[in-house]
Amino acid sequence: MKTINKQELFNTLSSRFESEEKKLSQIPNPALLQDASKSAKRIARAIKSKEKITLVGDYDVDGVSSSAIMTDFFRQIPYPLEVIIPNRFRDGYGVSPSVLKRVDANLVITVDNGITAIEAAKICKEKKIDLIISDHHTPSEILPDAFAIVDPKLQTCEYPFKEICGAQVAWLLLALVKKEMKLDIDMKQFLDILAIAIIADIMPLVDINRTLVKEGLKVLMNSSRPSSMIIKDFLNKSSISSEDIAFMIAPRINSAGRLEDASIALEFFTARDTNKAYKQFELLGKLNDLRKETEAQTTKEAIEKVDASTDVIVVANEGWHEGVVGIVAARLVDKFAKPAIVLSIKDGIAKGSARSIGEVSIYELIKKSEHLLNKFGGHKMAAGLGLDKDKIDIFRDAINKDASKLDPDDFIPKEDALGILSSDDIDLELLDLLENFEPYGEANPKASFLLKDAEVVSIKLMGSDKSHSKIEVRQYPHQRKTLELIAFRRVYEMPRNRKITCKYSVSKNEFNNKVSIQLLLS
Fold first, then answer.
1. Can you give the pTM of this predicted structure?
2. 34-74 pLDDT, tens per residue?
3. What is the CATH architecture assignment of 306-411?
4. In sequence order, what are the residues at sequence separation of 6 or more whose Cβ sits closer than 8 angstroms to the Cβ of residue 51?
5. What is the pLDDT of residues 221-255, one digit of tens each?
6. Could you tell me which of 460, 458, 456, 469 has the C-alpha nearest to residue 500?
7. Which CATH number fits domain 423-521: 3.40.50.1360, 3.40.50.720, 1.10.10.350, 2.40.50.460?
8. Is 423 left (phi over 0), alpha (psi -120 to 50) or beta?
9. What is the CATH number of domain 33-282?
10. Does residue 50 come out as left (phi exceeding 0), alpha (psi in the -120 to 50 range) or beta?
């Protein structure tokens, strides 16, 4: 791999973006979303005639964020909105028949779910409830018979940018409600929560997503929303990056729905004062610690079950916690560099999550075996599914048969190192250059660089439990200057040949108001 200088790095990162960065004013008209105007008119009518409105969300970050934005918007009208976020363990996913048993409303609106809710739509019809589905997941051939379906991935939808998350769909729909009712509500105030949803749901950070995240992180820094003030205090940085959200905030918010109930996270986002927000954030922190322990144990057990000869990993076990299988699938993808599906078995039913890699659409792969499943939904890089325990082996064989027909290049991870950096180029100027291309994430991965056969000078273990490593290396034998690599949650021992070949990224470390460069082992 060749050495890359700062100018070449700038050119490489610039080439990821086809056009100039969009402004907020250039976000496509929400009315281009199919059924969005019809839905906005129906919501406005319900408000004016004082009908009962129930919102059904989802238990991941995107679903909770969507629900929080809706809750806050309706508070500002003001109008009472009943919000139900299904419990992963009792209700399953989305606007299920079990959730509808608890609903007594004239109008039901879904956020981040509903595109596969065929049965729920039938029940709503029977109960004479108007159902508005707002979702961003890929539809099947058969659509629910709902009053309206707002989903950019509908084949007949003319919204020009399809890769938006559930919270964006909800936010765009509310912009039309605002217009319909001539409300004095600033839609920009929700960008703090919206940015968190876009990052957490691994949307490509290009086009309007890039703009919304960039602006949303600025709103987060200056927002008087109690939850945003707590996040800002917790991160304690002069500027917040997409990585801060992805690694420090999103897992906390996700942990509520994974281990207990997503209402804990919703109450954090919608807290009216910082005391309440702080209490909820503390609770999310404790749940996140428990999630880490559960996930580490499950990952260890899952690795032992992996058949490394297959193109797609499919592992299953009785007793695995249903709330961590998605994260475990992501860990297996990282370790084995291939798509992974992790299933938790209970009472003869396997429920699980899939994660993908490179250009492999896990959604399309699973769809080919849909006849073996009880349910499934998702998008290119992630999906959820359920099937009978006795069909797991048949499913594993079927999905691998289909995967074997794919181009091997599709399985290559996108985050390849950009080149070898000279040690002298690793300075604050490099940090500034890299910050110009924030936010990083899906479709705009953070730049990583290669260290090849570097000399390991020393290894120190850090942290209260000595679970992090600080590795001092010399890139070339003739150099006096050494580099320090940090490997979080990994314990390294001195290699026999005292050499290391690895990928690393460059990040900013802020401590006691001093800015320094930190090299993170990939």
1. 0.85
2. 999 999 999 999 999 999 999 999 999 999 999 999 999 99
3. Roll (3.10)
4. 45, 105, 106, 107
5. 999 999 999 999 999 988 899 999 999 999 999 99
6. 456
7. 2.40.50.460
8. alpha
9. 3.90.1640.30
10. left
